[in-house]
Design goal:
- The structure holds two protein chains of two kinds.
- By secondary structure, chain A is mainly alpha-helical.
- Chain A contains 17 helices and four strands.
- In chain A, the strands form two sheets. Chain A has a two-stranded parallel ribbon. A two-stranded antiparallel ribbon of chain A has the order 3-4.
- The longest helix of chain A is centred in the C-terminal third of the chain and has 37 residues, at 355-391.
- Chain A starts with a helix and ends in a 5-residue tail after the last helix.
- In chain B, 72% of the residues lie in helices and 0% in strands.
- Chain B is globular and about 45 Å long.
- The A-B interface holds A 125, 129, 197, 200-201, 203-205, 207-208, 211-212, 214-215, 220, 224, 239-241 and B 84, 88, 96-97, 99-101, 103-104, 107, 123, 126-131, 133-135, 138, 145, 151-152.
């Protein structure tokens, strides 16, 4: 072996050790989360298999993220897995507990629905004015899956840690959008054909639902617009009103989450409709992590604008060196920029500061968020699948 | 308070309050949709073009006449909000309704007190227009349901 060959081998060996050392704290932290699921009761061997397999899978993907420079690809795999896993576990749970994923009115209004983070913008004004939480889910942990108090603490922590990064790392619905946006190789509707004014729609939806919810004391978005009821739970079609609501959310799911992402290769629901994402955009302002463009390296090829899945880059971004406030920090632009001009950055530090350090410091809270919100579902879904294979049923 | 008082008055009209509010919802939400979706801003138009021409011939009446016409100018969001507040059924409900109305319309009004500073922020106007369409559709649907038999 030549001297240069030996040097290369040594440096690649160092890189692997570095990655292992970087990954260790995350692997230990995540193992605690998975071990928590084993506490109490008899340990089913299938649960152990599901937990170990999902823990190993996530850890390997995190190592790949750290070592290969393909953050977007491996984030996307984890993100899509968590989105698919949620209904795989949640729907059987609903069937076991309530007999169906359709909730009767009395169950819905007695707090049988599980609390969802998307309700956060709507509950603030009624909670301040009347001291009531208008979503019928539980406030403290109980029988339902996920309570308001837990979700609120998670949301505050996650918003401080990653800002709108929530939408590409924490949201357990966004993966559906991302899945369908990645199926086609080329878009049938190109980004230039989409009027840029649609980017303001999520802010309008946010404004409208916050005000209408304050006026009507009901979670308007959940009742009328949320497409993700298609993969969780919804009100039984016991009245004309409920039938209308089911029709609307089903059409929104098909249109915004399936068809339009397929045609445009963009996350249409996340980028052009979701009011929670709009609210998170404001929280991007108080988050220390951001994505920056080095204007000295940038050749204005505009590949980043064409590739951004959430419409968060435009011509003005290439002038200012920053994406728009709607950036979800998904790393697509970071990975695809041919000049390596786009990187994660910590606010207040020089732009030329080591981007690898900023990336690692961002990836840690982002990965931990993804793990806390999604890894449990992945393990549980895997367990249900193993149950199906071994017993022929996904139900207990 | 006026909205609450009107609501209390309507409550006396047994059997008809749903119908009246339903008609108002449908009519005013359609008006709001028209106001938002037409290309020219409502503030730049005049409902009584003939009257304006006549007033122009008699300059002495112009300020009074224009003031009167401004008073007649229909503001669909305000009327829709008033109708909504009427149907809220309580003084607190009416007050919250107009608080929400104030917050919502502030998106439109922000450019006025800071002329020259915020006028260029067309984003706010786009957001305001989109939000107005969503609210109008919501009330249109609510009005249709009220007219159809009070399902909502």
């Amino acid at each position: 072996m030549t001297t240069s060959g030996r040097t290369e081998a040594r440096s690649s060996g160092m890189a692997v050790w570095k990655a292992v050392l970087l990954m260790l704290p995350a692997a230990l932290l995540s193992s605690l989360t998975w071990l928590g699921n084993l506490m109490g009761g008899d340990i089913d061997p299938l649960i152990v298999v599901a937990l170990v397999a999902s823990w190993l899978g996530f850890t390997v993907l995190f190592v790949l993220m750290l070592t290969t420079g393909k953050t977007y690809r491996y984030r996307s795999i984890m993100f899509i897995l968590t989105a698919i896993a949620l209904p795989l576990d949640f729907i059987p749970y609903m069937v076991e507990t309530y007999g169906s994923m359709m909730l009767a009115d009395d169950v819905m209004f007695s707090g049988g629905a599980s609390f969802c983070p998307l309700t956060m913008p709507m509950i603030i004004i009624p909670a301040l004015v009347k001291g009531v939480v208008i979503f019928p889910g539980e406030i403290l942990p109980g029988t339902a899956k996920g309570a308001f108090s837990i979700m609120f603490i998670l949301w505050v922590g996650a918003s401080l840690a990653v800002g709108r990064g929530w939408c590409s790392w924490g949201c357990f619905y966004g993966g559906w959008d991302e899945l369908f946006s990645r199926i086609r190789k080329k878009p049938l509707i190109k980004h230039k054909q989409i009027d840029s004014r649609w980017r303001y729609l999520p802010f309008a939806v946010l404004l409208a639902i916050v005000l209408l919810s304050a006026i009507t004391f009901s979670p308007i978005y959940c009742e009328w617009l949320c497409p993700f009821k298609a993969v969780t739970e919804f009100q039984a079609p016991s009245s004309v009103l409920a039938v209308m609501q089911i029709t609307i959310f089903a059409l929104l799911f098909i249109g915004l989450v399936v068809v339009l992402p397929l045609l445009t290769k963009r996350r249409i629901q996340c980028g052009l409709f979701c009011p929670f994402g709009a609210m998170q955009s404001f929280l991007n302002k108080i988050n220390i992590f951001e994505v920056r463009i080095d204007l000295e390296k940038c050749t204005q090829c505009k590949k980043c604008i064409r590739e951004c899945p959430t419409f968060s880059l435009d011509e003005s971004s290439l002038e200012s060196g920053k994406p728009l406030m709607t950036c979800t920090k998904c790393a697509q632009c970071v990975d695809t920029c041919p000049q390596g001009a786009i990187s994660y950055h910590i606010k207040g530090t020089p732009l030329k500061a080591n981007p690898t350090v900023a990336k690692v410091l961002f990836l840690y809270p982002a990965y931990i968020l993804l793990m806390f919100l999604g890894a449990g579902s992945v393990a549980a879904a895997l367990y249900r699948i193993l149950m199906l294979v071994t017993t022929g049923s996904m139900l207990h | 308070m006026l909205a609450w008082a009107t609501g209390s008055l309507l409550a006396g009209a047994a059997g008809y309050e749903g119908l009246l509010i339903g008609i108002a919802y449908v009519g005013l939400s359609v008006l709001l949709l028209v106001a938002v979706l037409r290309k020219k801003a409502p503030s730049g138009s005049c409902a009584f073009e003939g009257a304006r021409v006549t007033l122009n011939r008699w300059p002495a009446f112009l300020p009074i006449g224009m003031g009167f016409l401004v008073g007649l100018n229909i503001c669909p969001p305000l009327l829709l909000a008033f109708t909504g507040a009427v149907s809220s059924g309580s003084l607190l409900g009416s007050l919250i309704f107009f608080l929400a109305f104030f917050l919502g319309t502030s998106v439109y009004f922000v450019p006025i007190p800071f002329l020259g500073v915020f006028r260029r922020v067309s984003a706010l106007q786009i957001v305001g227009k989109f939000a107005a369409v969503i609210v109008a559709l919501y009330y249109l649907y609510a009005g249709i349901l009220l007219l159809a038999g009070g399902v909502l």
